[in-house]
From TrEMBL:
PANTHER family reported for this sequence: HYDROLASE-RELATED (PTHR43434:SF24), PHOSPHOGLYCOLATE PHOSPHATASE (PTHR43434)
Gene3D superfamilies the record matches: HAD superfamily/HAD-like, Putative phosphatase, domain 2
NCBIfam families, A to Z: HAD-SF-IA-v1, HAD-SF-IA-v3
Name assigned to this protein: HAD family hydrolase
SUPFAM superfamilies hit by this protein: HAD-like
Amino acid sequence: MKLVMFDIDGTLVDSQNVIVEAQKRAFAAHGREPPSRERALSVVGLSLREAFVELTDGQGPVETLAAAYKAAYSELRAHATPEEDRLYPGVDALLRRLAARPDCKLGIATGKSRVGVQKLFARQNWADLFATVQTADDALSKPAPEMFERALRETGVTAENACMVGDTTFDMMMGHRAGAHCIGVAWGYHCHEKLGPAGANVLAHSVDELETRLQEFLK
């Protein structure tokens, strides 16, 4: 049995517009200049607290910024159009094909909250696809390997039979530190040229190529 773990934002879902706007509103509520779009996306994948520590260089009111972000994100999500929070083309079909295989389990490792993941699963009818879901509510933030290691324990799969799929250096570092195979996707929020040095064994530039890379891993 093998385990394939997926990040969410920037890997399965293109939620960048909602993320950036929520950050802008959080900073504006505190009379602060918001980060550039590039910097805003650079922290995607970290837990919310760690993201705001990074964005404020450790000098800001992290907890209240995080609370303002959560409120803004929830409001934006409630009124989001499909284009503002959409699956990358081909992702849903890929997940369903993988979940139907008898030789692998699927999992999630994300900086999103568990409530946020549950809402996504409800929208996409994904609840039955994943054997394990690890969030920043339950474990140390990426790039620490704790989320991945918890998933291994829950599923009974060994690290050498596990794979991490993600778009950020945090994803690759987490998977690499846990001893897993790592596939970096080039359509997300971090420069794909940085994924290899962070631990990616291979890169995928499209969902079709990702499926090919996963088939190779699952042999």
